[in-house]
Amino acid sequence: MILLDAILADEKPTGIGVYTLNLVKNLSKYLDFEVLTHNPNLFPGLKTVKAPNFVSPSNGKKGALLRTLYLQTLMGRNLLYRTYHHISTFWRGKQIITVHDVLPLLFPERYKEQYYFFKFFLKRFIYLADFVITVSHRSKEDIVGFFNIEEDRVRVFYQGYDEDLFKPVKDKDGILKIKSRFGLFDYVLIVGAQYSHKNVEVVMKAMKFLEPLQLVITGTKEPYESNILKLAQSLGLSDRVKILRYVPQKDLVYLYAGALALAFPSKYEGFGIPVLEAMAVGTPVIGTYAVKEAGGDAIRYADPDDFEDWVEAIREVLKNREHFVKKGFERIKVFSWDKTAKEISKFLYSLL
Q: What is the DSSP string of 137-182?
């Protein structure tokens, strides 16, 4: 039997939570396993092991500490697979952990607390784990380099996207409603701008020369949100920059569909799921080479440090929008959670 630790999935999933929910749903087609979760309602029809509510990501820093302590109470001899980067010291079976990226080691000033965890604890966790799963070859190179781990102990499985949700939108009224709700007209979208390595500033500077386009930014988090707003004010863009913070997945699909393009100016990414989501909906993408493994040859790449390149790139994509939409639809065929789950299930099954 396999115990799959999904306690980072909660009612308002982002990042690893979205990854976990989609992966578990699709893994259930190929494997028999139990799900460790604080909310069994998230996994209807699956066998679950109830974790205490305090492990939920919604409990913030206190929850993170209590979660780490709780994980050390787990004991067993089965295969333990985690969609995130922790181990249980007293577990006597094989342990597979997932390290999505090494952002805290690359940007310690932005992830001060996580930096110390990655530097002093994660190396030990990786040493004790039997295998590490990651989401891109770029992340694998970083993991091998930073933690001095054998390459064959790190396995790459690309992420998928929610194909039931992210697809061309036929409900045009839904797009109009979302635009009306947030006061939007012709806009470029940025998704998941929580931290400064997301590099929103370069697109904002480009927007100065792309009047009257709006820039819509979702998923912001303090203190980065305040920095974005200050820059918008200094650039005279306060009336053209919209901050939407957390947007539910069901609304996000309409935001993608209504956008002229998705901008993804990040300086570093483990993978870049929003690139897949946008292409699947039919929205062209301008990104950096940080999302090359997701975007392939289907998106327009721009220099993360050159706003003039972003002005040119956005203009090019809008002028040749149908070309990039078509390329996106071709590219998206490479990815699916079903494919990811099938590959991971084969790997896990080989370890039983």
A: HHHHHHHHHHHT--GGGEEE------TTTSS----HHHHHHHHHHH
